[in-house]
Hints:
The protein is α+β, with helices and mostly antiparallel strands and 98 residues long.
Amino acid sequence: MLTSALWPVPLKTCQTRSREVTILLYHQWQFLYQRCNWIDFTVIRLCWEKDTMFGNFEIIFEVLGVGFVVRWHYADTDKGRQLAEQIADFDTQHKEPS
């Protein structure tokens, strides 16, 4: 979900999960310490999303390349349970041998 190549680099040890709330802090300053093909820098961003299919609410806030995402899982839904079962089945079928 937050792992695309276009997404900013997460800060280390800043993701927590408590009471179905996930908080992710990140930055877009990687061009200062590593060579990049392009620079994507956000001056200011504020947005929110309500995902009723999976029972999630998300707020994204960024200022000068530093931002955070707060995601709240407020309800279990049939689609969410079906997806979790499919992921578990896939993980079971494609488990790497030890």
